[in-house]
Amino acid sequence: MVRAGLRQFFADQVDFQVVAEAGTGREAIDIVRKGNVDVIVMDIAMPDQNGVDALAAIKARAPDLPVLILSGFPEAHYATTLLRQGAAGYLNKDCDPEDIIKAIRTVYRGRKYITALVAEQLAEGLSRGDDKPLHEHLSERELQVFLRLAKGETIGHLADSLSLSVKTVSTYRTRVMEKMQLASNSDLTYYALKNGLIQ
User: Fold this and answer.
1) Which domains does the chain have, with CATH numbers?
2) Distance CA 194, CA 188 (A)
3) How many Å apart are CA 174 and CA 52, to the nearest integer?
4) N or C end of the chain, less CB within 10 A?
């Protein structure tokens, strides 16, 4: 329904053309492989592969392709982290539709689209130094491992899906636990839920 609404809205813009749609993270990556895309508008809550993983895969394949995140998750929890990982902009689905159009045009021109709230967060982060949420201290891969463990994935399944050894994933888990000062997977899940990182 959201995609249908966006498609109809974009059809009213003379300089826009929807060339492809994806219902999953893997489909989004396939679209990038085929090329002929100027901007990707993507959610971070998708079946089969979360948007954090999909963003990493897209930026690895097409580093200059702007990816605008449009999500139901609050900007306060995700925006700065995803911007650091290569997203060109972040908008909450509750935003004004005109903001989406403005954001797409902005990122298409090679600039970042940052709302006033996110700009304020980034400025506060600079003034605070290290005084920021613990999950923002994680590397891209550590954040991927953290979110998947928080959702209940096993280390074995994680290793298979990320094409890593069980030992490597276990090492990432240990680093995540240390950086976030947590002791168990249930602690990870509680932290993620409390901070709105998973539903």
Assistant:
1) 2-128 (3.40.50.2300), 134-194 (1.10.10.10)
2) 10
3) 20
4) N
